[in-house]
Structures are given as structure tokens and as C-alpha cells.
Hints:
Layout: H1 5-14, H2 21-44, H3 73-77, E1 83-84, E2 87-88
Antiparallel strand pairs: 1-2
Helix pairs in contact: 1-2
Amino acid sequence: MSLSADEVRHVAMLARLALVDDEIDRLAPELSAILQYAEQVGEVAAGDVPPTVHAYPLRDVERNDDPVPSLDRTAVLAPAPEVEEDRFAVPRIVAEEA
């Protein structure tokens, strides 16, 4: 399948792209080549191959939402360079407004 300049112009209009004539002349054969490649891929795909979204089967990785004990606050804060009121102390990066 090859696209004419008018078809490229129409697709560009649908995509809200402002193309000049030089771009349309350059894109028409490039888009035609892409369509030909897509046709080739369609020919290769056998009827016994089910359509897929991903090459690998995806599954959700979830765990039960069971309550577990919290981390020990002292152990968590132990490696911190600075602690203030049982919290990590970090330098201010945004100035206070007066």
C-alpha cells in the first residue's frame, strides 16, 4: 500500500500536524514503507497464533493484605546521619516565606 501526498496531508490534518510540502513529499514514501512492512507482518502471522498484547504472559504480583508488625523505630533511625524528634532530619531545600 502506498500513500499519496493528499492522504499524508489528510493524516497530518487528523493528527493536527502542520506539515510543509517538503515534509509531505518525504513522509509519503516512508509511511508507505511502514504500511508495507505491517502488511508483511500480517502475512507472517499464522491463523493458529492467538493475538497477544505482550510477548510474555503478564500476571499481577500481589500479596495478601495481612497486617504485619511495624519496623522497630530505633533500628530504622539508627543508621540515619541525623535524627530529630524521632524522625529523619534532612536539610531544608525550600526557603521559608517571610
